[in-house]
Amino acid sequence: MTLTAGTIYWLVASTDDVHGTSFNGGWKVSHLGDSAVLAPPSSWVFVPSQWPAARISGTRLQSVGPVSTEKREKATLETDTATRRVKIFSNLNPLFSEPYLPGFGLRIVGPSVPFNVEQWRALPFTPRTSVEVKTLSAALSHTSGTNRINLGLYSDSGGVPGSPLPGGQGSLTDIPDSGDCCDLATLRLPGDVALSGGVQYWLVASPDNVNAPDFQGKWLDSTNNICAELFPRQSLLWTDFSGYWVAAQIDGQSE
To answer: Which one, of 32, 39, 35, 33, lies nearest residue 206 by Cα?
Structure first.
């Protein structure tokens, strides 16, 4: 079977209503989409993904004939070592017009929001090689209160966020309003923060309890983990939903 690049397809698992009408099972979830939540004074709590795990393998088709000038220039840029620029992590879907779902995500709440519990959110990532981080970007939205939030890099401690990395923190203002799309809240670090390849780290969004304790907003879901479900005996329509993988991108340069 031949698939066309840039086209969205769906992998479907369904019951065999002829030979397996009594089947009862589930689709295991991937670790991609995992996160963590903190509600002080409690400890960090690991939150498993809701993104079904799968792998599709095949063979890349090569075009016949000379390589175009555009492709040659692109290859040169991708292998240029002069700038050493590298995308350390990104779960933004390049095939969707919206890299995240406006209005849909996990809540971030300051300690002074009435009738609410303070909540921090964290996204794990693992660099493939040793790198130096320069910018942190997250799909954060502002719902109410002072428009200010903290964003930073943390170490890992047994599968949950550990300690803040020196020089890896900062505050953001002008967070997009809830429902707007598609700007990312971006923090440029004052200096380079070195990360080791193959080591898990965490990108943490937290309320600024000093300057903005009344902040309330969300870390919005990436469109890179859309799922769908169908209950044929109830409806013939598929219902899509998010696997709750909060959207972010981390950029830097190779060491």
So the answer is: 39
The whole model's pTM is what? 0.83
Question: In CATH terms, is domain 35-52+84-254 a member of 2.60.120?
Answer: yes
pLDDT digits (tens, 9 = 90+) for 188-247: 998 889 999 999 999 999 999 999 999 999 999 998 887 888 888 888 888 877 778 999
Quick: pLDDT tens for 98-136.
Answer: 888 888 899 999 999 999 999 999 999 999 999 999 999
Q: What is the three-class DSSP state of 242?
A: strand
Per-domain boundaries in the chain: 35-52+84-254
- Residues near 215 by beta carbon (within 8 Å), at least 6 away in sequence: 108, 109, 110, 113, 142, 144, 145, 146, 147, 148, 149, 207, 208
**Residues in contact with 150: Cβ distance below 8 Å, sequence separation at least 6, in sequence order:** 169, 170, 171, 172, 204, 205, 206, 207, 208
